[in-house]
Amino acid sequence: MSDPLRPDEIIDPAIPAATQAFRLLRDTVGMLPNLLKLLARLLRDPRVPRRSKLAVGLALAYVVSPFDVLPEFVPVVGFADDLLLVAASVNHLIKVAGSEVVLEHWDGPRDLLEMVEAILETATELVPSRVRRIVSRLAGD
How many structural domains is the chain composed of? Predict the structure, then answer.
């Protein structure tokens, strides 16, 4: 990765907060198509272990399942468990695939991929260690 960013490079005090929030939202939405293409390609790639693909599939099935550890009607937290579980399984899939395979399938700029990986890693750290171990076991680690 490149040099770490300074806070004043990320949050410019001269730009209104609403403008900065809109730019962040725009950049995040702009990143989603590349991330979805990457996931679709990794799930079809024979070099990626099947068990890792299965872990992503099970996480997605959990999201659409009517059974939830934390129901969606619980504000914020209800969606957070789904999001974090998917992030942890996608993070595992990307790590297991390896940087060469991931870069082969990534269409966007490399620094954007590094940002995606950092976000997924941070989200994974928020998942309880017990759940991370279950994801790892499902994925064959």
Answer: 1
